[in-house]
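Please check the following for our workbook:

***
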Amino acid sequence: MSTLSNVINIITMIVMVLLLLGGAILMATRRAEHGRGSVLGMIGCVVLLVGVVINGVYILMAPELVRSLGFAQYGPIALVMTLVSLLIQVSGTGLLIFAVIARRNPPQQAAQHAQQGWQQQPEWQQGYQQGPQHGYPQAPPQQPGWQPQQRPPFGEGQPPAHG
C-alpha cells in the first residue's frame, strides 16, 4: 500500500509542477497586456510551486522520519511542516486572487490612439472650437472618450450646392 501511495503522491506532484510552471510561463508571456496582475500571478505560481516541492519532499521522507525518530519525536516536525505548508498555500492562493482583481493595463491600441490625439476634430470644427471669432459662442471643452459628432452652424464648412 505504501508503494501505491508514493506513486500517487509523485504523480500528483508532477501534475502540479507542470500546471504551475505552465501558469507562470503563460503569465510571463502576457505580462505586457496584464501588467501588475500578471506579475502577481507569476509570483503566486512560484510560491505554490515551492510549496508543492516542499510538500513532496516531506511526504516522501515522512515514513523514514517516523522510523528513525519514532512517532513521539516526529509529532513536532509534522506540526511545523503543516504550518509551513498552510502559510505557503495561503500566500500563493492569495497572490493568485489578487492577480485576478488587479488593475489591468489599458489595451495597447487604445492607449496609442489616446497618446496620438486620436480624437482630433475635423478641420471645419477646429475653427468653431477656437472661440467667438466668427461670432459664435465657444463650444464646451471635449471630454475624453466617445463624443457625438457635432454639426457646424448652417452654411459653415458645407460644400457649395450645385444646382
Summary: The mean pLDDT is 77. Residues 2-105 form one domain.
